[in-house]
Structures are given as structure tokens and as C-alpha cells.
Amino acid sequence: MNSNSSGQEDFVQHNVVDQQHQGIVAYTFQHPSGWQAESRVVWNYQYHFVPLMTFGRAVNPNGLEMFEFLPSEQFTWTEPNYGYYQPGQNQEGIVHMPPMSGIDALVRLIIPKYRGNCQGLRIVGANPVPNLVQMINATEIKQINLYQGAMARIEYMEQGRAIEEEFYACHFQLPPLHGAGVVINSWGLTRLFRFRAERGHLDAGKKTFWQIAASVRFNPQWQQLCTQIMEQLAGQARQNTQAGWDAINAGWDRLRTAGEQSRQFMANNQAYVDRQEQRLQTDWHLQPLTTPAHSADDPSASQAGEYTSHEAFIDTMREEESIYNPNAPHNEKVSGHHDYIWTDQLGNVQATNDPNYDPNSNSNQNWTVARKKRIGD
Questions:
Q1: Which of 28-45 are b and which e, b meaning 16 or more Cβ less than 10 Å from the residue's Cβ?
Q2: With bands split at pLDDT 50, 70 and 90, how would you rate the model's confidence at 289?
Q3: Is residue 343 within 8 Å of residue 365, measured between CB atoms?
Q4: Of 330, 331, 356, 335, the residue nearest 343 (C-alpha)
Q5: Nearest to residue 40, comparing CAs of 20, 65, 59, 60?
Q6: SS3 content of the chain, % helix, strand, coil (to 5)
Q7: Which residue from 19, 62, 152, 361 has the fewest beta carbons nearer than 10 Å?
Q8: Residue 229 zone, left/alpha/beta (φ > 0; ψ -120 to 50; rest)
Q9: Under 8 Å between Cβ of 29 and 56
């Protein structure tokens, strides 16, 4: 680490710039003059609830020391959980996760997220830090009593060298919201940061690390811009929520209409079936079941031309009717069942259920009502 002739560390200021909004400075932090700093501000307007993420880092190029500011984390959980969302599922920047303490959140969520792949990772300590808000001079939250500090210390191997690292966060949990038989819990971690050094050197560098952590200064103009953007996005979220409810209600209306149409279709279909059964019973029971005696005066008559019960059954199964059509004997099968079937002198056929329909109107053909074949004819 660099120091001046008096033994004090030389610090310089780094500006964290919001490039998506005309390059306005979001906040600043201090770091040793010999260190390299980088930062980023990212807006995701698809995340109506948590659209903003910021990163900041200062690294000693001549050693393993590093300090990093991490994005805030926000969580929500609904009880009872009906399975709509699974633990860890991200919805517009908010992660669904049951509430837990700041220490548990660091150990179970944050460390695995950022250091889960490190070789030989182990947690060597974790404890609350009651005065963390004051230690880092977090003016934007220190007037709110909801925030409680937490830390966790880890060790791991990196390129054959042993590393020590500490994570810190201000944990909060909002009062639960009750409504519609459910309880909504909102909680999270803010002012997240971590610092590291080679094992055995971390404690010696803490004065520098804590000076960096406490040096953050937010730009009031940028904070005002953030407030305006988040209010607009919150308004859009409310509109989307209302639109979602409207769509759900419209869906239920469509389902009800479809149900009514389905019931009407089934009723019409059943009525059709009933008519066909009645028609079959009429043909079967009301017509002669035996072959009528042939006239002695007509020796050429034979049973070969009779319309039998078997033929009637076949017509019913095929949903057809047989008619007498002497002008076109090949055209004696009519699809469906109709109250009236008309034929002309050419053997053409027209079928209808309308008693008022007369094909002779405006026609040059002579149409007559055809006689349907009956069993035994």
C-alpha cells in the first residue's frame, strides 16, 4: 500500500458515473492513490421494482488487496406459499426467498453467489455488527431503525495462495403486509461490500478498507433522478398489475361464454341424437316387419327389390336416407335426415327441414316431394 512521508495513506476520489443518464455522477468513493478503480451503473427498466444495480471496485495492482461495493439484494416471500414461485426465482429484480437474518443471508446466499466456486472455501466466522450503519456513515439509512449490520469471514485458495475475505451488509425486514388471506414479507440487504487480502494480512489492511467503505458520498441530483424513475416504473407496475387483473377477468368471461356455447352445442347434439332414435323407432316399429304378399296379378314382383330392416339399419348407421327416385335410381341415397326431400324430372335431389321451402319457385324444373323408403316397401 502507498503512503506519504508522514506515514499516512494517500487517497484519491473515484466518480461512479451513470452513463445511461448523460454521464451524471451517481456517487463517489475514496481509494489509495496507487490502486486501480472501476465502477458501473446499470439500469434495467424491465425490472419495475428493482431497476438499478451499481458496482464499484478498487484493487491493489501490486498485491492481493481488493475492496468491492456490491449491488443491493431485495427479497419477498408470501405465506402460505401456493407454489407460484420457487425459492430463488427472480421476478423483476426481486428474488423469492423466505425471510432470514443478515448473517444467514450472507452465509447461505451472498457468499455462494460471489465465491461459490472458490477452491477450499470455508466460513471461519460470522456475527452481527450492530453499529455498521454508523461505521460506514450510511446517511441515507442511518435514521431508519430497521437496518441491522452483519458480517461473515471466509478463507479460500486462489492460484495456490491462501486468501482471507470479509463480507458486510445492512439487513432490513419491512413490516409484513396482510391481505386476501396471505402475508407478504419483504426484506433485503443493502450497502453490501467485501474486502480481501492474503491470509495473515487482512487485519493489517482493515484501516484502509474501512476508510474506503466510509467514503461513499451520493450525488443529491442523481438520487432525485432515481426517485423520479422509480416512481414512474412503480406506476407502470401498478398499471400492469391492473391490466393483469383485467385480463384474468376477461379470461373468466371467455371461459363462461365458451362453457355456455359448449353446453348449447351438447344440447343441440343430444336433440339430434334423440330425433334420430325417434326416427329409427318409427321406421322399425310402425312399418311392417314382414314382407307384404305380392299380388297374384304381378308375377314379376319379387322380394329382391324390398327395402329391408337391414338396409334401414345400415342407412341409420351411415346417417343416410333412402328415397324413391325413378328418374335417377342411382341417386336414391341422401346424406343426413331431413323432413322434406324434393326431386325433379332429371333425378336431382334437394333436402330441407323448412316446411315453407318450395324449390319450384323461380325454377324451370318440376320438383315434387320424394317418398322415403320404409321397411318392407
A1: bbbbbeebebebebebee
A2: very low
A3: no
A4: 331
A5: 20
A6: 30, 35, 35
A7: 361
A8: alpha
A9: yes
Nearest residue to 292 (alpha-carbon basis) of 223, 374, 227, 230: 374
Q: Is 243 helix (H, G, I), strand (E, B) or coil?
A: helix
Mark out the alpha helices in the chain (DSSP H runs).
Answer: 102-105, 111-115, 132-135, 206-213, 220-285, 309-317
- Residues 51 and 255 sit within 8 Å (Cβ to Cβ): no
Q: Which of 10-14, 311-315, 320-324 has the lowest mean pLDDT?
A: 311-315
CA distances for 78 relative to 84, 102, 179, 343, angstroms: 10, 19, 11, 73
Residue 328, pLDDT above cutoff 90: no
> In angstroms, what CA-CA distances link 89 with 74, 85, 136?
12, 6, 31
Rg (CA), the chain: 43
How far is residue 116 from each of residues 17, 67, 92, 121, 123, measured CA to CA in Å?
Answer: 29, 18, 24, 8, 11
What the block records as the C-alpha cell of 145 is: 431503525
Residue 292: what pLDDT?
A: 44
* Overall size of the chain counted in residues: 377
Burial class (CB in 10 A: 0-12, 13-18, 19+), 166: buried
